Amino acid sequence: MLPSDQEKELEHYLSLHNIHKSNWLRAAVLGANDGILSTASIVVGVAAAASSREAIILTALAGMVAGALSMAAGEYVSVSSQTDIEQADILREKEELEKTPELELELLTKIYQERGLSRATAVLVAKELTDYDPLKAHIRDELGITDISKANPLQAALASGASFTFGALFPLLTAILAPVNYMVYFQYGFATLFLMLLGAIAAKTGGSPMLKAVMRITIWGTLAMALSAGVGHLFGVVV
Asked: pLDDT tens for residues 115-168?
């Protein structure tokens, strides 16, 4: 056993890693990005062909509500499907351990050998882990399923829906406050600013390079809004 002070120090160093944030951060960033981008793009497309503030605000509201519900539902279904696959693989692994334990032990040994252990050490590690908890060992090392990577449908759905709504609020506020005649330009400018801010926050939270994240989200966001405005001009829709 390690001394309590050393255990606390190890726990502190482990907490410095950001991988445990990956599931909820991915869903939150995706939702907020779509909230800003989708709502702003819809408003830009309508504003390019319409002069009614009421129509523009209604479009932003409809896009926000529909988008949030769609994101939450889509994320829930998608992650639930991933969970179903994980559970099916775990059940299959459990059956294989019962029917062919020797083969499963050899498979685990091969996995550890491929990671750099000698044959003798790999056999020893595989046997000890199998004695301790064979199913857990195979779930982690053969299937690659860990507590960090395991899907959580409800968490992902709530994070996506809430973050989409949060992101969509900014284009909505711009639609309410910006001059109608210059709505397209205000949406472009503020949406780009919001996207840059989102990229910076996501990079800071995840510990990734900030400039790369900001540039990526800004370039793709600006392109999407430009295409939406082009569609509005092309069809000349008047709302």
From this structure: 899 999 999 999 999 998 888 888 888 888 776 556 678 888 888 899 999 999
State the Cα–Cα distance between residues 152 and 74, nearest whole angstrom. 13
**Whether the model pTM is above 0.85:** no
Q: Which string of b and e fits 54-74 if b means at least 16 CB within 10 Å?
A: ebbeebbeebbeebbeebbee
Residue 139: closest CA among 176, 97, 195: 97
- Measure the CA–CA gap between 21 and 17, rounded to whole angstroms: 9
Task: Kindly report the backbone phi and psi dihedral angles of residue 32, in degrees, each rounded to the nearest multiple of 5, phi listed first.
Answer: -65, -40
Give me the half-sphere count of Cα atoms (radius 13 Å) on the Cβ side of residue 112. Answer: 23
Residue 19 reports pLDDT greater than 90: no
CA pair distance 98, 102, nearest whole angstrom: 10
